[in-house]
Amino acid sequence: xxxxxxxxxxxxxxxCNVTLPVWAAQRSxxxxxxxxxxxxxxxxxxxxxxxxxxxxxxxDRINREGxxxxxxxxxxVYDDGYEPFRVAPNMRTLIEVDQVLAxxxxxxxxxxxxxLPIAKANNTLFFAPFTGAGLLRKMPxxxxxxxxxxxxxxxxxxxxxxxxxxxGLDVDQIAFFTQRDGYGDAGYIGGVAALKRHGVKDDxxxxxxxxxxxxLAVENALADLLFSRNDIRxxxxxxAYAPCAKFIRLARQSGLDALFLNVSFVGSELLLRKLGKDxxxxxxxxxxxxxxxxxxxxxxxxLKDHKAFNPETVPDYVGLEGYVAARLLTLALSRIEGELTxxxxxxxxxxxxxxxxxxxxxxxxxxxxxxxxxxxxxxxFDDGDIVPFQWAQIRSLLSQGGGR
Length: 404
Hints:
Layout: H1 2-15, E1 32-38, H2 45-64, E2 73-79, H3 84-97, E3 102-104, H4 109-121, E4 125-127, E5 145-146, H5 152-166, E6 174-179, H6 182-197, E7 207-211, H7 219-226, E8 234-238, H8 241-253, E9 259-262, H9 268-275, E10 283-286, H10 297-309, H11 317-334, H12 342-350, E11 353-355, E12 363-365, E13 377-382, E14 385-388, H13 394-399
């Protein structure tokens, strides 16, 4: 019987084009298993790996402390390459074969669009995905969707408000460079909403250029921007790190005197690594506190646990977000008094109310509040480092031609 079961599991996994994690054969029947479908290959793989590692470090911390009532936490991860068509088989394997308690930390908006119907159909929690898309933030909330991070709309609203209110820009001086899919659309829609609050009545006033997902084909988008009639002083970017880096470098080589602002999904360290010194002055909004904030408890704990459990890599913002997500989910798990089920974990999260996880900003979850954090931080690239930034400094940065 065991041989038949093993063969059946192997066949299902093989047919779904996924790879079993290396620890799968060592799983205990009493373990609490969580699942993730993420990019472990392709041009966005670094984001997926860092999110996976951050979640794993958070789970390792809890396991070191005895797990959840003596039960160890395990993370089962499958590669989707940041392609929606690969997500569905991964999700079905995680939910139907692996019988995970919840999905945690999936990366991306287009992949979330593919994953969400399967999670909902199986009454399985879709927790803390690495995306700020509005489709995961409906009101009233979807029962099985619970977010940790601030939305893309909140990140971009912070950018637009700062550029206009403190930077003194006109709405026509702000352009958008976005990925041509649900991720880029989510960012652009948030940007349009923010600009409308500043008086824009006609969307056609907003310059919007795009590129194709999983490519570096940004030249046409840059040409459209350079040959527009608008005096562009700031470009809000909703893309992946490699195409965003190429766009910024080519734009600066072409003489575009603008400030470049990226949402958190870009992966600050990855973008900086691609840009090097060409990145000076680039801004990135964050949904977790700056890594330099050692006085913030959750940052201090992440840095300590990262050194203990994953010392061969360098701490980063994506990893910190995954770590916070794991800490938040395990906080809810620890408060469940009865059986751990897919329903009881949703109830536990909704029962957290207002709480402090050590971020230096309040968190809140409830039946009508399925996004724990509303806070947005901002950082700047400066001489090869990522440093905290204050929006009050943005006028000075704009006057320097984007801070170069």
